[in-house]
From TrEMBL:
<dbReference type="GO" id="GO:0000145">
    <property type="term" value="C:exocyst"/>
</dbReference>
<dbReference type="Pfam" id="PF20651">
    <property type="entry name" value="EXOC6_Sec15_N"/>
</dbReference>
<keyword id="KW-0175">Coiled coil</keyword>
<dbReference type="GO" id="GO:0006886">
    <property type="term" value="P:intracellular protein transport"/>
</dbReference>
<dbReference type="GO" id="GO:0090522">
    <property type="term" value="P:vesicle tethering involved in exocytosis"/>
</dbReference>
<dbReference type="InterPro" id="IPR007225">
    <property type="entry name" value="EXOC6/Sec15"/>
</dbReference>
<feature type="region of interest" description="Disordered">
    <location>
        <begin position="167"/>
        <end position="201"/>
    </location>
</feature>
<feature type="coiled-coil region">
    <location>
        <begin position="33"/>
        <end position="60"/>
    </location>
</feature>
<feature type="domain" description="Exocyst complex component EXOC6/Sec15 N-terminal">
    <location>
        <begin position="3"/>
        <end position="172"/>
    </location>
</feature>
<feature type="compositionally biased region" description="Basic and acidic residues">
    <location>
        <begin position="182"/>
        <end position="191"/>
    </location>
</feature>
<protein>
    <submittedName>
        <fullName>Exocyst complex component 6B</fullName>
    </submittedName>
</protein>
<dbReference type="GO" id="GO:0016020">
    <property type="term" value="C:membrane"/>
</dbReference>
<dbReference type="GO" id="GO:0006893">
    <property type="term" value="P:Golgi to plasma membrane transport"/>
</dbReference>
<dbReference type="InterPro" id="IPR048359">
    <property type="entry name" value="EXOC6_Sec15_N"/>
</dbReference>
Length: 201
């Protein structure tokens, strides 16, 4: 029993020696671990902060890209609108010209403008609704020009009929006046005075 106790005490001393031998290394390891832990926490905080900043920058970048997309879409819409207006503008100008010619009762130019509008301008933009309305109105406009021109012609002929006597009288006076001037000029002509001179001789 004493031998067993002695052996136990011997092992305890060896364990104590071993613990004393490795204790400083253990303490150093714990100290190093605590330092690593602090550095790891610091690194974690840096990663978290970097991630937060990255998320914020990403949101701003996504917002900027969306604004850019909207701007490009608006630019495309503006370009398409300008192109369509450029196609429609000649039609509107011709229509305005037609209205002005009809207003000033220039019937023949109005008919030519209407024909050009119908054959050349409107077919190029026939898919627009206002052009379809204009196409539908062309027969009415042509008939309107025809009616107005016929009315003006009737008024003109009626005016001639009412003033035909005065016109005839004025015409006769002009003819008589021209005839009188012609006779005087013949009397003054050297060819007519030459035979008289010969007769006197």
């Amino acid at each position: 029993m004493e031998k067993l106790d002695a052996r136990i005490r011997n092992h305890d001393r060896e364990i104590e020696k071993m613990c004393n031998f490795h204790y400083q290394g253990f303490v150093d390891s714990i100290t190093e671990f605590l330092k690593v832990r602090a550095e790891a926490q610091k690194l974690k905080n840096q990663v978290t902060d970097t991630n937060r900043k990255l998320q914020l920058e990403s949101k701003q970048l996504v917002g900027a890209m969306e604004e850019l997309r909207q701007c490009r879409l608006q630019q495309w819409n503006i370009s398409a609108t300008v192109d369509k207006l450029s196609q429609c503008l000649p039609v509107l100008e011709m229509e305005s010209k037609l209205r002005e010619q009809m207003k000033s009762k220039r019937h023949y130019p109005a008919l030519k403008t209407l024909e050009h509008l119908e054959r050349m301008c409107l077919p190029q933009v026939s898919h627009y609704r206002f052009c379809k309305v204009m196409v539908e109105n062309i027969p009415r406009l042509r008939e309107e020009i025809k009616d107005v021109s016929m009315s003006d012609l009737k008024d003109f002929l009626e005016s001639i009929r009412k003033h035909s006597d005065k016109i005839g009288e004025t015409a006769m006076k002009q003819v008589s006046h021209q005839a009188g001037r012609g006779g005087k000029e013949r009397d003054r002509s050297p060819l007519r005075s030459e035979p008289s001179a010969l007769a006197l001789g």
